[in-house]
Design goal:
Its cofactor is FAD. It is a single chain. By secondary structure, the chain is an alpha+beta fold. It has two domains: 242 residues, 3-Layer(bba) Sandwich (FAD/NAD(P)-binding domain), CATH 3.50.50.60; 151 residues, no CATH class. It is built from 13 helices and 21 strands. Strands 1, 2, 6, 7, 8, 9 and 21 form a seven-stranded mixed sheet that branches. A hairpin with a 2-residue loop joins strand 8 and strand 9. Helix 1 packs parallel to helix 6 and helix 2 runs antiparallel to helix 6. The protein is elongated. The two termini are 25 Å apart.
């Protein structure tokens, strides 16, 4: 049996960040990472399309918490301890400069996730963190104020244990045996599968500022919307999927959404259309794109309103004006299923938040057991927020373990 002062289970972002900070703050501790796969940091590699969306340029703790459908209340205190500015400083001190994009997302200046991976591997080696790959954890047993960990490559004994395995059902089962409650995991960040004539054959079209509601619920979102080969994506859909994760799972991902493409009321839109009927009388509606709507989408909505490509503005009667106003402000689409957003699979679920001390990220049920990252029931919308939760939890846990 091998003894280590601290063992971190999980060789992902949170695991490496925690282990490095523990070893740096207390060089006397023997720290090891147990990773089940042949190489770690897989999620870092694919994040942000291979660029690694490290964090988000939001520097007010209260504002930052509002991007977490689960964990908003619990993360307020931790974000006062370690948040975006601290993350930026941590990486810059280690030679990794970050940049802010127009939408607030932050990436390494290199535009490559390999920069982050290389940083972690270098820091782990520098601080003598042992990284053990292909170690599948089979059992965790508390023994005389220590933990015996059985793996596919042998057994370990440790004084302090940090779990940073993300959404791993095998580890959740082991934690249940230790007395923890696991909130049932469901997908969080996903796109909507929609088959509808109005969006057929126009993948890649982006409506910049829409409002989307899930009918028969209080769920709604706003922002850019992307039409894809399979349906709809982009920030407003992903945000809706995150905040609606539990409700949409209950509906087996079959529901209806209402989209307001122009962020105006039906009546206001109708008045504008009546004015356009006068001003553009001799022009065809099909070719007279309005409201900054992408041309290809405008064409689809005009045809869905019962017109053809030759219909002139002067020809519009009350019914057709109302039909067009309805398509622009109250378009209903049927969602039938979901698709994973790129390779970035995020799960709502994990260790019950009431069972964690958020001043230290230590378990309230088992002494010297700590958590970081998505293993707990915290998840965020897309944009670097899930990584910020990982850095914050890992740093605070590391600080307390190293003492």
């Amino acid at each position: 049996m091998t003894f280590k002062d601290v063992i971190v289970i999980g060789g992902g972002a949170a695991g490496f960040f925690a282990a490095i900070n523990i070893a740096e703050q207390n060089p006397n501790l023997k720290v090891a990472i147990l990773e089940r796969s042949k190489e770690g940091l897989a999620k870092v590699k694919v994040s942000g399309g291979g660029r690694c969306n490290v964090t988000h340029a939001e520097f007010i703790p209260k504002e930052l918490t509002q991007n977490y459908p689960r964990g908003e209340k619990e993360l307020l205190g931790p974000f006062h301890q370690f948040m975006t500015g601290d993350t930026i400083e941590w990486f810059e001190k280690r030679g990794v400069e970050l940049k802010i994009e127009d939408d607030g997302r932050m990436f390494p200046v290199s535009n490559s996730s390999q920069t982050i991976i290389d940083c972690f591997l270098h820091e782990a080696e520098k601080h003598r963190v042992e990284v053990l790959y292909s170690h599948i954890v089979k059992a965790i047993n508390p023994q005389n104020q220590q933990f015996k960990i059985e793996t596919s490559q042998g057994d370990f004994l440790t004084n302090k244990l940090l779990i940073a395995t993300g959404s791993n059902p095998r580890i959740w089962n082991l934690l249940e045996h230790l007395g923890h409650t696991i909130s049932q995991p469901v997908p969080s960040l996903f796109t909507f599968n929609i088959k509808d004539e109005r969006i057929q054959d126009i993948p890649g079209v982006v409506a910049q500022d829409v409002e989307v509601k899930v009918l028969d619920t209080n769920l709604w979102s706003e922002g850019p919307l992307l039409i894809t080969h399979w349906g709809m994506s982009a920030p407003c859909i992903l945000k809706l999927s995150a905040f609606g994760a539990l409700e949409l799972a209950k509906r087996d991902y079959k529901f209806q959404i209402e989209i307001n493409f122009i962020r105006q009321t039906f009546n206001d839109c109708l008045e504008v259309l009546k004015t356009l009927k006068q001003d553009l009388a001799k022009k065809t509606v099909f070719k007279s794109t309005q409201f900054d709507i992408p041309k290809r989408l405008w064409h689809k909505l005009v045809l869905a309103s019962g017109m053809d490509i030759e219909t002139r503005w002067a020809d519009l009667n009350k019914e057709k004006l109302e039909n067009l106003a309805g398509q622009l402000t109250q378009a209903v689409f049927k969602v039938d299923g979901k698709s994973t957003f790129k390779e970035e699979f995020v799960t709502a679920g994990g260790v019950n938040l009431k069972e964690i001390d958020f001043k230290t990220f230590e378990s309230k049920r088992v002494k010297n057991l700590y958590f970081a990252g998505e293993v707990i029931n915290v998840d965020a919308i897309t944009g670097g927020f899930n990584f910020q939760n990982a850095w914050t939890g890992a740093y605070i846990a590391a600080k307390n373990i190293a003492q």
